[in-house]
Amino acid sequence: ARLAEQEVGPEVGADSGRHVWKAWLRDVQVSDIPRIRLQLEQIAAADAFARGEWRPAKPLPDPDGCPAAYRRTLALLREASSSGLWPETSQARSRVIRAGGGGSFSVGHPAEGQRQPKGNAALPELLAAVFELERLVAPPGRPPSAMVAVNRNAQFAPHTDSGAGAGQSKSLIVGLGGYVGGELVVEGDVHEVRYQPLEFDGWHQRHWTLPFAGERFSLVWFTPA
Questions:
Q1: 222 — phi, psi (to 5°)?
Q2: How far apart are CA 92 and CA 205, in angstroms?
Q3: What is the spatial distance between Cα 215 and Cα 218, in angstroms, rounded to a whole number?
Q4: Cα(107)–Cα(123) distance, rounded to whole angstroms?
Q5: Least confident range of 33-37, 160-164, 203-207
Q6: Is 137 helix (H, G, I), strand (E, B) or coil?
Q7: Distance CA 200, CA 213 (A)
Q8: 10 Å Cβ neighbour count for 205?
Q9: For 29-41, how does the pLDDT look when each residue is reduced to its tens digit (9 = 90+)?
Q10: What spatial distance separates the first Cα and last Cα of the chain, rounded to whole Å?
């Protein structure tokens, strides 16, 4: 060991340590500090939203300005919202909705022996429309989903999806309506989903909704394992 120290010299070891320290400090400044600052800003915005004090940085878009593929589904979502037929949010899902006075329910085709969602019978046209929309907007190669969560003005707190079975397929989410904000955060990465479908692993990846203003619907397709 002494021979090795004599050959290398103490100044070389100290210089190497300085390089390691500088590299670590650079990583903190470039990566960690901006990420922590963004997370703190998101927490502050979520708290302001819950108090009714959050204000969007951009004006609301035209509520009827949506791509043609989404028009029928959006019209049926609005009809369900105003008709009084919107199903009640389950207790489990209510626990992860932070604010916004929103609602959430599921429709689809559960496995044999499982209870049929109430929305299937209450909103049959919407049931058909949301799965037709998935066919139109899903990425190539994605198999048809069995279920879809239908959300209205719901800001979800950080969570992973849960339910019966041993997991689920990758989720596919898209936002509809005239709103600003409301991006989806997946493990700290922010994604715009308004008329921009996004696949993510909702079973394993923590995800949540950023504050929004306006009318925000979202659809999340998935298949239980």
A1: -165, 165
A2: 18
A3: 10
A4: 9
A5: 33-37
A6: helix
A7: 24
A8: 15
A9: 777 666 666 566 6
A10: 57
What distance in Å separates the CA atoms of residue 105 and residue 91, rounded to the nearest whole number?
Answer: 11
pLDDT surpasses 80 at 152: yes
To which residue do tokens 């990583």 refer?
27
Choice between 40 and 105, residue whose per-residue pLDDT is larger: 105
Say which residue the tokens 């979520």 belong to: 46
Question: Distance of alpha carbon 224 from its chain centroid, rounded?
Answer: 18
**What kind and span of H or E run contains 181?**
strand 179-181
Task: Indicate the DSSP class of residue 102.
Answer: -
Contact 136, 90 (CB under 8 A): no
Q: Which own/partner contact pairs does 114-119 have at CB distance under 8 Å and 24+ positions apart?
A: 114/164, 117/87, 117/147, 118/87, 119/87, 119/150
- Answer whether 0.85 is exceeded by the pTM: no
Q: How far apart are CA 169 and CA 223, in angstroms?
A: 5
The backbone torsions φ and ψ at residue 126, rounded to the nearest 5 degrees and listed phi first, read -65, -40
Which residue matches tokens 């394993």? 204
Q: What is the CB neighbour count within 10 angstroms for residue 175?
A: 23
- Structural contact between residues 85 and 123, judged by C-beta atoms closer than 8 angstroms: yes
Q: Look up residue 64 and give its two tokens.
A: 């009827």
Identify whether the C-beta of residue 135 lies closer than 8 Å to the C-beta of residue 149: no
